[in-house]
Design brief:
The complex is a heterodimer. Chain A is an all-alpha fold. Chain A has eight helices and two strands. A two-stranded parallel sheet of chain A has the order 1-2. The longest helix of chain A has about 35 residues. The radius of gyration of chain A is 23 Å and the shape is extended. Chain B contains six helices and no strands. Classes of the chains: A mainly alpha, B mainly alpha.
């Protein structure tokens, strides 16, 4: 468990540096550090599929960001902060943090079982990193873990879930990606076409 | 962007093959080992990004033109939707794994198994790789225009000034 807290603290420190630093390039590098920390965390949580996807997307995004940073001449951000805006954002962050502490209160498996004997419909989140839904009898993932290989024939349970049991999710994800790509290319193309016309005239 | 030095170009021309083959492996074995269509597609796109960084945008534009990449993107999306619709036609409901249930059960842990899952992986890999390539290509074109803007406006003002003179 200690490794998760070390990684979490590392990622939080990197996020604070990424927000606070004035050099754009170091800010981008700190965002990369957050992504790699998340990838390591997925790996320690025994989710290699997500870890591979995370690290690959992170590398690609980092390349784009670094190119965008280097190609601009402006690499430093200066200026004073407004006092009122800082106070408001700190207060909002504090409220959200306290609400998150209250909402995301976790319990271990034994505690959840004890509460369930008294209140059968009580719901609580499990501890961070415990695969509790694979041992809860009435959970839907129980079915996937037990009968995934038999029903889909795929040895990789994640593939059988995302492409067979929950293929609608993947269809929606692909649609979102498709639409966003169309939007991005259309917007960029309009801008560059305008610029070309300006250059011609 | 004219590309980098000879050292980078040589190493990139060796490494790009390995990255591309690794992406294909991740896609094809997505139903057996960790990975899958999304991660493999991003790896395929990143091999082209390496080429773009090392050799410049024009080289990549000749290898895989923008129109071809966007067609590949549409082809991937079409294949994925077509696999789902074939499930409706042959299996009775949308996205049903009709190949595994009726026609080609296959042995578990073999390459040809799990019915439509490897086909969906290939379609998603094609789609994700092509679309990320399209986005990066469009962004690099946009960057070039953005850089061109300052000297362009200067030349415009220069020509107008010349006309005035």
């Amino acid at each position: 468990m200690a490794i998760f807290y070390i990684l979490l603290i590392f990622m939080i420190i990197a996020a604070i540096i990424a927000v606070e630093t004035q050099d754009l390039l170091s800010s981008v590098i700190c965002i990369g550090a957050i992504g790699f920390g998340a990838s390591l965390m997925f790996l320690f949580l025994r989710a290699p599929d997500i870890a591979i996807t995370q690290i690959v997307v992170e590398v690609l995004g980092l390349i784009i960001l670094i190119r965008a940073t280097i190609s601009r001449d402006l690499t430093f951000i200066g200026g004073d902060r407004e006092f009122f805006g800082t106070v408001v954002s700190v207060v909002i962050i504090g409220v959200i943090f306290l609400a998150g502490l209250k909402v995301l209160q976790t319990k271990s498996y034994e505690e959840i079982q004890e509460t369930r004997q008294m209140h059968p419909h009580a719901v609580a989140l499990p501890d961070f990193g415990t695969p509790i839904y694979s041992i809860t009898p009435e959970a839907a993932s129980q079915e996937y873990v037990k009968k995934g290989l038999e029903k889909t024939g795929a040895a990789n349970l994640v593939a059988s879930v995302i492409l067979d049991f929950r293929a609608y999710d993947t269809l929606g994800e692909a649609t979102v990606l498709f639409t966003s790509i169309i939007g991005a290319t259309v917007i960029l193309r309009i801008r560059s076409r305008k610029r070309l016309e300006e250059l011609d005239v | 962007m004219k590309g980098m030095t000879v050292i980078v170009k040589t190493i990139a021309s060796w490494v790009k093959v390995l990255i591309f083959i690794f992406g294909i492996y991740i896609i094809l074995f997505g139903h057996l080992t960790p990975g899958g269509g999304f991660a493999g597609g991003v790896i395929l796109a990143s091999s082209y990004v390496l080429l773009m960084l090392a050799f410049g945008r024009r080289f990549v534009g000749e290898n895989l033109p923008f129109a071809a990449a966007s067609k590949l993107d549409c082809l991937g999306a079409f294949l994925f939707a077509m696999i789902a619709t074939l499930g409706l036609a042959f299996g009775g409901s949308f996205f049903v794994n009709f190949l595994y249930q009726k026609y080609l059960p296959g042995e578990p842990l073999e390459l040809i198994s799990a019915g439509t899952i490897p086909l969906s992986n290939i379609a998603i890999g094609l789609k994700v790789g092509a679309s990320l390539f399209v986005v990066i290509f469009a962004l690099s074109v946009f960057c070039k225009d953005f850089k061109c803007r300052e000297p362009g406006t200067e030349s415009e003002s220069g020509t107008s000034a010349g006309q005035k003179e």
